[in-house]
């Protein structure tokens, strides 16, 4: 995400330079085992050639998988139908809000923005809390332009649906706002907040009270990150 390195290019400006953001903290809960299983599924379903030695337990080394998937996509690949589910699962379980892009982007280019975002919305509203947080981290990368024309889905050639960068954005904004207010899980709130619009003008009148609740929750929360972000996003 944009603030992983402490900066957000789209944020307010101070003295002509980018506003410095506190880095998104790592997850409070350890979801490593689930992520490793998902990475192994990516290797199996896509048929990645991973050169690195397996990690303990026989699972592939994560960095080797990231590298192999990146190189495969650069050269062009036809992804099998089953690749979508395993890429999304790896993306929402990946604890790294920058490297998860490596699983999001192939799914985005091969299967389309609408299908990817619909899957992330489903995880946000029905998945375990760690994956709900991961869906928010992955959503950030779902806004990328389509830059991999040679990464395609297996199946009969059909005219692709015209790409709409705003597809399902309104639905996400409303559901993410509701989830932030409803769900007290710290990682969920930390990962949703940077994506939230905290102005009444971004929502219909019936959601204005929820916007106020979200701002109040973040401002009065014991977590330093939430208090830091809301002051920048909502203003004093």
Helix content: 40-55%
Work out the strand percent. under 5%
SSE string, helix = H, strand = E? Answer: EEHHEHHHHEHHHH
Mean of the pLDDT scores? Answer: 89
Report low-confidence residues grouped into runs of 5 or more: 2-17
Number of H/I helices: 10
State the CATH class: Mainly Alpha
Number of strands: 4
Please give the alpha-carbon distance between the first and last residues: 24 Å
Strand arrangement, major sheet: 1-2
Class by alpha and beta content: mainly alpha
Shape category: globular
Rg value: 18 Å
**CATH-scheme architecture:** Alpha Horseshoe
CATH topology: Leucine-rich Repeat Variant
Please give the domain count: 1
* Biggest sheet details: 2 strands, antiparallel
Question: What would you say this structure looks like, in words?
Answer:
The protein has helices spanning 32-46, 62-75, 83-93, 101-111, 113-126, 129-141, 169-182, 186-192, 208-219, 224-234, and strands at 13-14, 17-18, 77-79, 151-153. The strands form two sheets. It has a two-stranded antiparallel ribbon with strand order 1-2. The chain has a two-stranded parallel ribbon with strand order 3-4. By secondary structure, the chain is mostly helical. The longest helix is centred in the N-terminal third of the chain and has 15 residues, at 32-46. It contains ten helices and four strands. A hairpin with a 2-residue loop joins β1 and β2 (17-18). The chain has a single domain (32-156, 163-234), classed as Alpha Horseshoe (Leucine-rich Repeat Variant). It is globular and about 50 Å long. Helices cover 52% and strands 4% of the residues. Residues 1-25 are annotated as: Disordered.
